[in-house]
Every structure is written in structure tokens, then in C-alpha cells.
């Protein structure tokens, strides 16, 4: 069993937290795990991505080869499309539909959405609104993790305990908020 | 055994803590910053009171590490590739002095320039200095090589370089720890003149370093990190994979055996005996390395007059520049190289930019207005967040070369008669390499305006402390800048008119002016507020 996941977004949107939760769940199973991150200049409001690889066998490359990703999990719709060269023919694109508009001319959002919806396997949800409804506005990233959960082949409980472990330091209220966000995303995924 | 989830950088840091260092020295620089940050956050380091403060720059960091080695203790000094240019003087000379306590130089290269102004390969410095170099291929190697490197360093009394690239520095995986070692006691060098590089001593030391080369090579030949697998039947090709390039090779064959003989090199100097054996055994060689083609050049240029084909970055089998990846390796091996759909046309670029509300933005907007009447081409800048002032809507700067170059370039341009001539440098970059340049300006009363953007931190690398914080005016006065031409303001929209006026007044002054726009980086402020919550 092996999953290669491209996490995509804009610096500061919380994709590394998604990686940490998935990584924790993988480690709990005794799986191997590699996660290449972006640090430095690109974090200043630029596009960021993380290559996350989990497997029950040893993993060699820190980078996912082009055309081999099982999932592109993006917290921003245009950023989901930026990594299509990595997507395998049967891969899934799971994306937030809400744009993060910090550039001079953001492309036609309708066209971005229809491009995502034209892909063979896609999930497109408004994670920002879902997070808001759940009173978990800062947990949009965890809503997206929930939406991707079924495609990651980990059980609901495995993710739940990973979220508990990762957010435990921040207190019970934050843990509960994130579990709520995860559940809401899970229902939409 | 329990695994820690560590970045390559963090694995090096944990390795150093467990291998008994007494000090870590560094100046922040992507992709090396997290080594020191990990040590600063570590309880273990705190309990042992390991030295873990930032230095002014890589040169001062390096020299302090040599000092700790002189005193018999183990030390690491960490930097990005261009940092080693700054520290090149102590580095080259440390090959002559050698080490007393174990001394490791950890250098993180940045092929593809994810966050750097050039692409250079520190293994060339390794060869230049004639010191051994270790190149980890994964996070566990990072951890293990610290132990191995310190033992090697103390066995031969020489510093050892550990070289890695961005991909490994910033990728996380499980790492298993070893038993923590005791720190070394203070102990003078056996030879009281070991660190005395007067020519008469230095000549002897150079001969000793030359003599050591044979031993270094024999260490490489026997090294557990250089693996040689010659069982494969297909001798039409032999592969040399350096450092993490080996992972990309393995990735392409997945769970099947690689059909060709493979030598993995993670310990330099290159094991000539094994390379010769591989060369004689196979029809052609393919060299895979992340960075510049140093091994390929050595094999092609110096050691063999052979006629067999050597494939790599020099003959176009792999791209001459840029980071290596599994797909490039697949192409070089003639394997199927699949790609997903191209990036759709509709996707717009999203370059990094100054944060909303960044103090630099206000400083640039006012500077632009003050310079309006003179046209473009007057602003020399430096390395930091403010380099993003090059991008629209600011288009405020005209150069970015190396740490500190803004001040000295503005002086050179003023010497040539350019008016006005403005330098824009960050506060931490000023502490790193600006002081001596400013002294040059004062010495000649150069007609320059030096703008020190004071956001109270080293911003671009994530907000580290720096050595001159809180002392900028005193330093400038001490260097001889006239008090009345050191002007401080708070870069905020509401102060725009005042800022433009100050810029204009100091541009008109025929001499050295220092302007300090002072407002804290928003990220640092956020962090602080969080801590106070």
C-alpha cells in the first residue's frame, strides 16, 4: 500500500498541518513516511506545495515523480491545477473552491472551477464556508483533510486520534473544533 | 524503536546533540536555518547549556567554532551554500590548522535556487580545501553521519564538511536515535602551535594535509556510506549515484533490482579504486549528482584518459543546471517518463510578495516618491524580504547581489558620479555584512544614503534574532556617521509625507546619511502576541 499526495496552497494556509496529521496516522500504523516541504522565500504569499508519501514499504525519493501522484489535495482552486503534471491518470483532485486572491489579476473563477470539475476524479467543496458553519473558521485545512480522508485509506478513527494528538498541546477546545471541521469535510468528501 | 519525524536539518541537529557537541554556530539562511532553530528549541540543549546563539555572519560563526575546537570540544557550524563564500577564509585555513575537538561544517546547497541568489556546489569547496566531505542521502544518514563525521574529525584532527541539498534539508522522515554521548572535556591541542599559521608552520601543515589525502581516500574506499553493488549482469552501463541521487535511481526501479552495477558515493574524496573498477567493468558510465557535475568532471578530466562514454550533466544526458529529480534520472536511463496533464493556461503565477501591512512596503512607497524627480536606477538593495520590493507595485530596487553589497555598490556608483546613490539593506543583513562597507563610506565621505530597514528581526528566514538588534544608531555613530544625518521614522501610511521629506533632505546632503525606518515585522509581532496570550 502506498499513497503519493501533493498538498497545495498559498503560504500560510496550513498545508503543513494537513501533512502532519496524515504523517502521524501513517506512523501510528508503523508505515514509512516522507514529506518534502517548502521553506524560505516562497512562503511569503507565494504558491507552496508539499510532497507527502506514505507507504508500508521503504520510500526512496523525497519527491513524487511527475505523473505518479494519487491525490492532489489543495486548499485553493487555482493551486490545485498548478500541480496537474504530477497527477497519475487515475488520480484524484480534491480542492477547496474558495480562491485566495492575493495577486493582481486572479483568473476567471468559473473557468477554474469548471476545469477542476472536468477532471476524471474530482471533489470540489467550499471548505471556507463549511468551516464557518462549523464555527471553525481557522480549520479550513482540516475540512479539506476530511474531504480527502476516504481516498487516503485510513479509517475515520485513525484520523480522529491523529487530530487529537497533533492539537492536544493547544487545548481541548481546539481539538474539538478541528474534529468538528474534519467530520464536516468527511461528510462532503 | 521509536522514530522521530525530522527534517533532514533537524536530524543533523539531533545527531549533533546526541554526539556530544558543546556548541552550534550559525547565521540563518535557507535551507540551513532549521538546524540551529531545532537546537535552540531543544530541552536537551538547554539542559546541557550548549552554545546556540546566532552569530553576526557565517565567518564569525565559523571562527567561533574553530575556537571551540581549539578548546577540545565538539562544535558544528551551519550555513547555506553562499554562506560558505562569506566563511571561505576561515574554512580554507581550517584545513591547515586542523581540528582539536571534532569540528563539522554543515552546508546546505540550494540547486534550482528555491530561495537563493545563485546555485553552487559546496563539494567544490570540499575538494578545494582537500578535506573529506560527507553527503547524506536520507534523514537517517543525516543523523548517523554526525557521529561518523565527528569520529573521523577527531581521528585525523581535521574539520569535516557535511553537504546536503534543499530537498533533504526540508524533507521529513522517521529517524531512530542512538545513545547520547558525553561532551568532551576542555583539552588543549597536543601541539601548542597547531593553530598558528605563520608561513613557516603553514608550509608544514600543507605538507601534512597533502600526506593525509591517501588516508582520506582509503577511508572513502572503506566507508559504510559508499556502497558498491556489482552483482548486476548488464555491464553495458555502470551508475555512480551521489548522495540523494541514489534515491531517484531506486525510485525508478521501484521494487525491481537495478539491472546495472551501481556505486553510491556519500563520502568524499571519491573512492578512486572503486570508481576505476567500475569504469573497467562497464562499457559506459552514468553519473547522477544533485548540484554541479563535480564527480563527472573529475572522472572525465583528471583521472582517466579512457575512451569510454561518461554520461551525466556535461554531455546533456541530464540538465546542466537545476535540482535533480526522479524524472530527469528516468530520462537519462532511457526509461519511460510519464507526466500528467500540462498546467492549464488559465493558471496565473503567484510569486512571493511583501506581506499585507509589511513595514517595508511603506518605506518603499515613500522612497519611490522621493526619487521620482531623478528617474529609475538609483537604488542598490540586498538579500532579504525587502528584495521583494523589486516586484510590482513597488519596482523600487535595482540590484541584489550578495549580503552587504547594497552599501558598497552604492558607494562605488557614487564614486562614479551617480546621484543620488541609495542603499537599502535590512537590519540583520546590516549586522551580517554592512558595517565594514559603511565604514568605507564614512572614511571617504561618500555621497550616499544608506537606508537600514529595521524590522527587528531576520525576516526572510522566518524571524530569528540577530546581533545588532537595538543598537543600530549607536553602531552608526560609532562608525563615524554624523548624528544629525541618522534619521529614524516609523514606516506607516500616515507618516508618508514626513518620510518623503526625510528621504529628500538626506538625498540633498553631500555625505553619508543613514535613514532607519523602524517598525517590527508583522510575523514576529504575531508570534510575540501569541506567546503573551
Description of the structure:
The complex is a heterodimer of chains A (189) and B (533). Chain A is an alpha/beta fold. Chain A has one domain: Pyruvate-ferredoxin Oxidoreductase, domain 3. Chain A has seven helices and six strands; from the N terminus they run βαβββαβαβαααα. Chain A has a six-stranded mixed β-sheet with strand order 2-3-1-4-5-6, with helices on both faces. In chain A, strand 5, helix 3 and strand 6 form a beta-alpha-beta unit. In chain A, helix 6 runs antiparallel to helix 7. Chain A is globular and about 40 Å long. The model of chain A has no long low-confidence stretch (mean pLDDT 94). Chain B has 533 residues and is α/β, with parallel strands linked by helices. Chain B has three domains: 219 residues, Thiamin diphosphate (ThDP)-binding fold, Pyr/PP domains (Rossmann fold); 106 residues, Rossmann fold; 169 residues, Rossmann fold (3-Layer(aba) Sandwich), CATH 3.40.50. Helices cover 41% and strands 16% of the residues of chain B. In chain B, the strands form four sheets. Chain B has a six-stranded mixed β-sheet, sandwiched between helices. A six-stranded parallel β-sheet of chain B has the order 15-14-16-17-19-18, sandwiched between helices. In chain B, strands 8-10-9-12-13 form a five-stranded mixed β-sheet, with helices on both faces. In chain B, helix 1 crosses helix 2 and helix 4 runs parallel beside helix 6. Chain B starts with a strand and ends with a helix. The relative contact order of chain B is 0.09. The model of chain B has no long low-confidence stretch (mean pLDDT 96). Chains A and B meet through helix 1, strand 2, helix 2, strand 5 and helix 3 of A and strand 7, helix 11 and helix 14 of B.
Amino acid at each position: 500500500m502506498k499513497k503519493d499526495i501533493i498538498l497545495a496552497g498559498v503560504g500560510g494556509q496550513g498545508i503543513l498541518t494537513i501533512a502532519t496529521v496524515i504523517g502521524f496516522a501513517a506512523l501510528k500504523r508503523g508505515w514509512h513516511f516522507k514529506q518534502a516541504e517548502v521553506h524560505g522565500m516562497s512562503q511569503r504569499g507565494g504558491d507552496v506545495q508539499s510532497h507527502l508519501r506514505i507507504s508500508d514499504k521503504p520510500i526512496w525519493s523525497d519527491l513524487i515523480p511527475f505523473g505518479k501522484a494519487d491525490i492532489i489535495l489543495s486548499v485553493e482552486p487555482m493551486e490545485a491545477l498548478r500541480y496537474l503534471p504530477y497527477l497519475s491518470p487515475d488520480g484524484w483532485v480534491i480542492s477547496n473552491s474558495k480562491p485566495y486572491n492575493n495577486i493582481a489579476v486572479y483568473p476567471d473563477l468559473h473557468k477554474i472551477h469548471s476545469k477542476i470539475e472536468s477532471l476524471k476524479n474530482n471533489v470540489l467543496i467550499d471548505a471556507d464556508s463549511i468551516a464557518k458553519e462549523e464555527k471553525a473558521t481557522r480549520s479550513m485545512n482540516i475540512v479539506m483533510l476530511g474531504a480527502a480522508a476516504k481516498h487516503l485509506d485510513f479509517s475515520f478513527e485513525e484520523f480522529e486520534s491523529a487530530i487529537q494528538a497533533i492539537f492536544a498541546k493547544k487545548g481541548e477546545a481546539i481539538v474539538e473544533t478541528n474534529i468538528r471541521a474534519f467530520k464536516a469535510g468527511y461528510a462532503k468528501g | 524503536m521509536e522514530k522521530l519525524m525530522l527534517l533532514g536539518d533537524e536530524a543533523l541537529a539531533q545527531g549533533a546533540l546526541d554526539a556530544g557537541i558543546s556548541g552550534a554556530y550559525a547565521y540563518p539562511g535557507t535551507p540551513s536555518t532549521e538546524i540551529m532553530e531545532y537546537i535552540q528549541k531543544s530541552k536537551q540543549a538547554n539542559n546541557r547549556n550548549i552554545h546556540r546563539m546566532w552569530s553576526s555572519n557565517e565567518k564569525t560563526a565559523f571562527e567561533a567554532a574553530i575556537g571551540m575546537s581549539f578548546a577540545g570540544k565538539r562544535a558544528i557550524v551551519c550555513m547555506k551554500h553562499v554562506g560558505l563564500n562569506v566563511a571561505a577564509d576561515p574554512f580554507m585555513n581550517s584545513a591547515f590548522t586542523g581540528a582539536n575537538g571534532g569540528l563539522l561544517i554543515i552546508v546546505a546547497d540550494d540547486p534550482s535556487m528555491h530561495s537563493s541568489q545563485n546555485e553552487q556546489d559546496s563539494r567544490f569547496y570540499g575538494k578545494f580545501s582537500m578535506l573529506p566531505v560527507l553527503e547524506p542521502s536520507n534523514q537517517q544518514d543525516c543523523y548517523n553521519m554526525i557521529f561518523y563525521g565527528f569520529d573521523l574529525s577527531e581521528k585525523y584532527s581535521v574539520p569535516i564538511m557535511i553537504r546536503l541539498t534543499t530537498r533533504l534539508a526540508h524533507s521529513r522522515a522517521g529517524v531512530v536515535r542512538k545513545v547520547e554521548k558525553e561532551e568532551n572535556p576542555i583539552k588543549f591541542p597536543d601541539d601548542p602551535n597547531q593553530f598558528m599559521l605563520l608561513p613557516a608552520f603553514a608550509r608544514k601543515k600543507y605538507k601534512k594535509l597533502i600526506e593525509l589525502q591517501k588516508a582520506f581516500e582509503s577511508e572513502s574506499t572503506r566507508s559504510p556510506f559508499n556502497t558498491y553493488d556489482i552483482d548486476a549482469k548488464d555491464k553495458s552501463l555502470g551508475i555512480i549515484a551521489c548522495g540523494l541521487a541514489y534515491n531517484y535511481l531506486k525510485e525508478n526501479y521501484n521494487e525491481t533490482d537495478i539491472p546495472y552495477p551501481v556505486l553510491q558515493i556519500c563520502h568524499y574524496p571519491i573512492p578512486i579504486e572503486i570508481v576505476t573498477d567500475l569504469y573497467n567493468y562497464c562499457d559506459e558510465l552514468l553519473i547522477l549528482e544533485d548540484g554541479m557535475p563535480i564527480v563527472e568532471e573529475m572522472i572525465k578530466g583528471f583521472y582517466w584518459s579512457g575512451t569510454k562514454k561518461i554520461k551525466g550533466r556535461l554531455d546533456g544526458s541530464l540538465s546542466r543546471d537545476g535540482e535533480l529529480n526522479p524524472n530527469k534520472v528516468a530520462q537519462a536511463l532511457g526509461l519511460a517518463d510519464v507526466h500528467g496533464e500540462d498546467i492549464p493556461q488559465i493558471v496565473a503565477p503567484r510569486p512571493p510578495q511583501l506581506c499585507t501591512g509589511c513595514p517595508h512596503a511603506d518605506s518603499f512607497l515613500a522612497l519611490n516618491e522621493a526619487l521620482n524627480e531623478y528617474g529609475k536606477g538609483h537604488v542598490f538593495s540586498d538579500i532579504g524580504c525587502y528584495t521583494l520590493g523589486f516586484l510590482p507595485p513597488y519596482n523600487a530596487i535595482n540590484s541584489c547581489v550578495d549580503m552587504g553589497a547594497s552599501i558598497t555598490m552604492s558607494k562605488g556608483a557614487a564614486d562614479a558620479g551617480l546621484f543620488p546613490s541609495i542603499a537599502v539593506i535590512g537590519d540583520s543583513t546590516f549586522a551580517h555584512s554592512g558595517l565594514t562597507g559603511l565604514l568605507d563610506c564614512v572614511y571617504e565621505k561618500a555621497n550616499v544614503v544608506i537606508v537600514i530597514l529595521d524590522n527587528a528581526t531576520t525576516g526572510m528566514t522566518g524571524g530569528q534574532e540577530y546581533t545588532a538588534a537595538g543598537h543600530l544608531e549607536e553602531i552608526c555613530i560609532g562608525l563615524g556617521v554624523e548624528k544629525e544625518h541618522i534619521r529614524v521614522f516609523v514606516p506607516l501610511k500616515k507618516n508618508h509625507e514626513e518620510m518623503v521629506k526625510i528621504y529628500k533632505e538626506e538625498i540633498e546632503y553631500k555625505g553619508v546619511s543613514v535613514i532607519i525606518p523602524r517598525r517590527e515585522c508583522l510575523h514576529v509581532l504575531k508570534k510575540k502576541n501569541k506567546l503573551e496570550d
